[in-house]
Amino acid sequence: MRERSLAEPVGRAGRGRVACAVAPAVVALAHIGPAVTWLPGLRRRWFPGLAGQGRPDHVALTFDDGPDPVSTPHFLDALGGLGVRATFFVLGENVVRHPELSREMVRRGHELGVHGWRHDRPWLPSPGRDARDLLRAAEAVREVTGRDGPRWYRPSYGVLTSGRWAAARRAGLRPVLWTAWGKDWRRDATPESVRAAVAADLRGGGTVLLHDADHASAPGSWRAALGALPGLVADCRVTGLVVGPLAEHGMTGEDGPRTRR
Ligand SMILES: [Zn+2]
């Protein structure tokens, strides 16, 4: 199954823990129930706002897991060269570690969304911690963005549990997942493979997921995403699609199934 739950990076930090997660699976089932929306085919059809479906002449470019002083500046330079602004879903703990880099992202016209405080796995329900961590992360982003603060939330691993959903509501954030991804977290990812993976699902109004950091991915895998950017942007432009941040994506309507919150 190409598009599945924990398809975002199962990186060096997480592989060893998979076995430990089997025991609480029953608990997790009820808790992750609403996260059925992470099946992209399903969410594109039934939850277009959550999938990040926007105006048909636009593609939202998004990056997760940064900022990282080793990799993120390369993305800022590449995007600057391409004349593209994007949305970066950042981790709160990375923002407070690298506040100047975070501010530089904003200075260059990019938008910051919230990816959580740290890149943890939602195997067990923890609504109190979800709420605390998300508020803390949103506040960290607000401190560097100033004024209005962040608007968007993308849960780590794309798993939008009921607790995370409620936490996002409390923090005033709208959950947004993606419609196309580059599978750039893999050890064997190349610029060509990332460009092809995105192109396979690229449509007007879509939201593309890439990673500007290998925080939860194979070490150095960000280079594949970086190398894919020129081709990926060209693929959009040749079909008349404008690439930009979620703020300009024209998303309207509901952000998900309110009755399930
Ligand atoms: Zn992530």
UniProtKB/TrEMBL annotation:
Pfam families: Polysacc_deac_1 (PF01522). Residues 57-244 form the NodB homology domain. It comes from the Bacteria. GO terms for biological process: carbohydrate metabolic process. This is Polysaccharide deacetylase family protein. CDD domains: CE4_NodB_like_3. GO terms for molecular function: hydrolase activity, acting on carbon-nitrogen (but not peptide) bonds. Gene3D superfamilies: Glycoside hydrolase/deacetylase (3.20.20.370).
